[in-house]
Amino acid sequence: MPPPAAGLMGAGTRPWVERLFREHGSVLEAFLYRRTGSHADAIELAQETYVRMLQIKDMDAIRNAKAYMFSVAANLAKEQATRQARARSTLDISDPVLEAELSHDPSLADQIDHADLAAQVREALAELPAKCRAAFYLQHGHGMSYEDIAQHLGVSTHMVKKYLSQTILHCRRRLGPP
Hints:
CATH architecture of the largest domain: Orthogonal Bundle
Strand content: under 5%
CATH topology of the largest domain: Rna Polymerase Sigma Factor, Chain: A
CATH class of the largest domain: Mainly Alpha
Distance between the termini: 76 Å
Radius of gyration: 30 Å
Number of strands: 0
Shape: elongated
């Protein structure tokens, strides 16, 4: 679609942009939805694209109006994603929700105790035969069922249960009562 004649910004730009959006608005919104994952954001960015297109001063400089419109929309979506990423990465320490989360956060001593216990468990597991360790990691690290573990290790489900009970018994003996 050829742009309106230069110098007709007030009279020619608006009808030209309106026609462009009538013909390609739904495709533009679908494009923006794929970029943002939100219908509301897609509609808002399409409206902002419309406003930006109305502000074009030199319509003759645009060779492909549809491509230009999609470039404007893509840039707006990128800017919005950047703003949202910044907003997610900053925390307001006076936020009551954050304060509540921080008040339930384990203390440094608890974190050290947990890390120490994890190291002891790793040491205890290292002392076990390979199939016992593998069964334990497959169940607790990957959430696999007895049947899946058996198939993965090439053993029966009975053997998987035996490996896991040996592992638990060994860790209890090694680490002592909780």
